[in-house]
Write a structure and sequence with these properties.
CATH architecture of chain A: Up-down Bundle
Helix content of chain B: 55-70%
Strand content of chain A: under 5%
Largest sheet of chain A: none
Number of strands of chain B: 4
Oligomer: heterodimer
Distance between the termini of chain B: 55 Å
Helix content of chain A: over 70%
Structural class of chain B: mainly alpha
Shape of chain A: elongated
Number of strands of chain A: 0
Number of domains of chain A: 1
InterPro entries (chain A): ATP_synth_F0_csu, ATP_synth_F0_csu_DDCD_BS, ATP_synth_F0_csu_sf, ATPase_proteolipid_c-like_dom, F/V-ATP_Csub_sf
Largest sheet of chain B: 2 strands, antiparallel
Pfam families (chain A): ATP-synt_C
CATH superfamily of chain A: F1F0 ATP synthase subunit C
Mean pLDDT of chain A: 89
Strand order of the largest sheet of chain B: 1-4
Number of helices of chain B: 6
Distance between the termini of chain A: 19 Å
Low-confidence stretches of chain A: none
Number of helices of chain A: 4
Family (chain A): Belongs to the ATPase C chain family.
Order of helices and strands of chain B: EEEEHHHHHH
Low-confidence stretches of chain B: none
Membrane topology (chain A): Multi-pass membrane protein
Radius of gyration of chain A: 17 Å
Mean pLDDT of chain B: 89
Subcellular location (chain A): Cell membrane; Membrane
Structural class of chain A: mainly alpha
Order of helices and strands of chain A: HHHH
Chain lengths: 74, 261
């Protein structure tokens, strides 16, 4: 296999790490919506925590994305 | 189709002479498109708040309501997370939030996106973590080690917890910089790729025959670009907000070390 081809395959494989981030962010928002529909009056106060959790989870997906870019452009 | 990465290339706008600073060495003061867009972002923020508060009244006008709304939104955020001492750090959080927000939005209005440069986001992340370390050591002194040794954890667990806490602290500036960088870069690449589909599919459809179906794909891509642009406006705000929230959380860790409220 050519080195160039292996590089592209590796970059594609690196982005698979985003699957985990996708599942994680989905779980966070589903948990928030379940809580919010049961007690809507408490939902507004938890918005910051919701975004915080989503951002911290998403960071891992971004790491996979950056790793893919690193493989592709270095 | 033009490369989707072309938009992130640094190009010189104004060439200025190199200045020799004793002790540091030569510093290139040339203005490139990234610095240009950062300067415009900073100027826009100052201009907005100057105009909005120029004729401040007890019953506020439209602009004043906007300015006061942003102000009190971040004020509530800071005091909500850090507590009554949060006001001390409000200026820093507010400045970083507005600067990141302005740079993100400028990127969507046909300007260069400064936040898609790792150098810019790494500087912002490094600044935040240096402030956290400075405040932490000034307020807690040698007690800073409590950051990595949570209270009420048995000693045999500490062997495991302390290295994890330490590594996660070291990763904070890295994730802070990469999150903003990755989100803005990824969003703009996706926009460019979909916009490229419109052009290349239309060119294919223009050759006639069965390829005329390409117009349907081009129309679909155009719809995708519009939808993605709307999503990018949400992401632009959200990432600035996340940066401000995380700055507050990291500051809260060292300001209220040992006594959580």
């Amino acid at each position: 296999m050519e080195a160039e081809a292996a590089k592209y395959i590796g970059a594609g494989l690196a982005t698979l790490g985003m699957i985990g981030a996708g599942i994680g962010v989905g779980t966070i928002f589903s948990g928030f919506l379940q809580g919010a529909t049961r007690n809507p009056s408490a939902a507004g106060g938890q918005f910051t925590n919701l975004i915080l959790g989503a951002a911290l989870t998403e960071a891992l997906g971004i790491l996979a994305f950056v790793l893919g870019l690193l493989i592709l452009f270095s | 189709m033009a490369s989707p990465m072309h938009q992130f290339e640094i190009q010189p706008v104004l060439t200025l002479p190199t200045v020799n600073v004793p002790g540091i060495g030569a510093i290139d003061l040339s203005i490139n498109n990234s610095i240009m867009s950062m300067l415009i972002a900073a100027a826009l923020i100052v201009a907005f708040f100057t105009i909005a508060t120029a004729k401040s009244a007890v019953v506020p006008g439209r602009l004043q309501v906007m300015a006061e709304g942003i102000f009190s939104y971040i004020d509530d955020l800071v005091t909500g997370i850090i507590g009554h001492e949060g006001r001390t750090f409000f200026p820093y959080v507010f400045t970083v939030f507005l600067f990141v927000l302005a740079m993100n939005f400028l990127g969507l209005f046909l300007m260069f996106t400064s936040t898609s440069q790792l150098a810019v986001t790494a500087t912002l992340g490094g600044m935040t973590i240096l402030l956290v370390l400075l405040i932490g050591f000034i307020r807690n002194g040698a007690n800073m080690y409590k950051l990595f040794v949570p209270a009420g954890v048995p000693w045999y667990m500490l062997i495991l917890v302390t290295p994890i806490e330490f590594i996660s602290f070291l990763l904070r500036p890295v994730t802070l910089a990469l999150r903003l960088f990755g989100n803005m870069l990824g969003g703009h690449v996706a926009l460019k790729v979909f916009a490229g589909f419109v052009v290349s599919l239309s060119a294919l459809a223009a050759t006639g025959g069965i390829a005329t179906l390409g117009y349907a794909g081009a129309a679909l891509s155009l719809g995708g670009v519009v939808a993605l642009t709307a999503l990018e406006f949400l992401v632009a705000f959200l990432q600035a907000f996340v940066f401000a929230v995380l700055t507050c959380v990291y500051l809260n860790d060292v300001v209220n070390l040992g006594h959580h409220h």
